[in-house]
C-alpha cells in the first residue's frame, strides 16, 4: 500500500525535502502532485533519519510547502523499451516527444543499470567505420570501446557528431544489425532541430533513437538523460543482439548540472566547484560500454565534451581521459584555417586500435600506415618550428619536403567534406599517396615487405 505525504518541509531549487518518511529507498521514484492538477516525477537522492531529499525532474516552479501531495512508488526509475524505440524521439527522461504516441513496451528497465561483471567482458575487437579518415585511419573506433571527442566552444563537434551518425557502419560486407542511440544534454532548440532534420533528410533516422534534453529543460533531467539512453542501448545490444553506437553530447552540460545540484544540496565542492564524486559519476556512465560473453551485440560510446577555455587539464576532460580508452581532440587553429573536421591527430589516440585493425579486420598495412603518418606529421611540427626561426628558404630540401607533406596531410587526409564518406581502403590509399611525397628512406616505421608491396602501388590497385 502506497502512502501519500502532504506538504513539504523545504524547497531549494530543483530539490525538495520531505519529512516523516518511512521505508524510502535511495534512487526511488516519487510522484508529486501540485495543486491536485499537475503530476511531476522526482527521485530520492539523499536520506537521513526520516528526511528524504528529492530531485524534481520538471523543476519546483509553482510548488509551495503546502500545495503538494507526494507518493513513493517503491521502484527506481524505469524506461519502457521495445525495438520500436528506433526511429523515435524522446525527452531526457525517456518520454516520447515526437507526437507518435507512447511506446508499446516489451519490457521496462531500471535506468541506473547493473554493473558489468569484469569476468564476463569480452576484449573489444573489430572496428566501426565512421567514414572520416582522421578517425578510421589514425584513431580507429573499436566495437565496445569508449572514445571521447574533446572539443571547445564554437568548434564543429555538432556537425562531426551528425556526420558520424549518418555514416557509421560495421564496415563493408557486414550483415550484423547496427543502430545508433543519440543523447543530447542541454542543447539549444536550433541545435536539436539540426540533429533531427539531418538524420531525417539523410534517411538514417529509422535506426536512430534520440533522447533530447533542451537548454530550457530542467537541469535535474540532464543528470538522468545519459542513463536513460544507455539503458536503451543495453537493451538493444544485449537482448536484441545489435551493435549499438551511443553518442553523448555534451558531457560538460551533464557535469555543470551535477555541480549545480550539488551546490543546492550544500555539498563541499572539489576542483573548480565540481563535487568530489564527479569521477565516479562519469565512471558509472562510461563503464556501461562493452561486450558481454555470450551476447551477440555490443555497446560503443562516443562521449563529446567541450573543454572550458580549451583547457585539456580541466577536471571534465581530465577525469574523462582517466576512464576512457583514448580521445579525439579538435583543434581551434585547424578550425581557423577552414579545415573540417579540425582533428589534431598528434594528441589524439585510440588505445584499443591495435587489436581491431590489420589483416582480417581492415587491411594488412593499416597499422604501419598509421604509425608512419603519425611519425611524419610530428616531424612536420619540428620543420615548421625551425622555419619560424630561420625562415623557410633556409631549410634543408628534406625539411621543405616535410612542409609540403604537412600541408597536403591536413588538406587532403584530415580535411574532408561533411557529406564525404570514405571507405577504409580509400583512407589507407590516401595515406600512401601522401607518404609518396617523401623519400622512401624516410619511411622507417613500415615493415619492408609492406613497403615493397604498397609504396609503388597506385590507388585502387
Q: What would you say about this model in short?
A:
It contains twelve helices and 19 strands. It is an alpha/beta fold and 461 residues long.
What does this structure look like?
Helix 4 (219-238) packs across helix 5 and helix 9 crosses helix 11 (424-435). It contains twelve helices and 19 strands. The N and C termini lie far apart (73 Å). Helix content is 32%, strand content 22%. Strand 4 and strand 5 (38-48) form a beta hairpin.
Distance between the termini: 73 Å
Helix content: 25-40%
Shape: elongated
Number of strands: 19
Structural class: alpha/beta
Q: Which oligomeric state applies?
A: single chain
Secondary structure tally, helices: 12
Unreliable residue stretches: none
Rg from alpha-carbon coordinates: 25 Å
Q: Give me the side-by-side strand order of the main sheet.
A: 9-15-14-16-17-13-18-19
**Mean of the pLDDT scores?**
92
Roughly what fraction of the amino acids lie in strands? Answer: 15-25%
Biggest sheet statistics: 8 strands, mixed
Provide the fold topology.
Blueprint: E1 4-6, E2 10-12, E3 15-18, E4 28-34, E5 38-48, E6 51-56, E7 68-76, E8 78-81, E9 89-91, E10 107-110, E11 127-128, H1 133-136, E12 141-142, E13 149-151, H2 157-167, E14 178-187, H3 189-201, E15 208-214, H4 219-238, E16 243-249, H5 251-264, H6 278-286, E17 298-306, H7 315-323, E18 326-329, H8 332-336, E19 349-350, H9 366-390, H10 397-414, H11 424-435, H12 448-454
Parallel strand pairs: 9-15, 13-17, 13-18, 14-15, 14-16, 16-17
Antiparallel strand pairs: 1-7, 2-3, 3-6, 4-5, 4-7, 5-6, 8-10, 11-12, 18-19
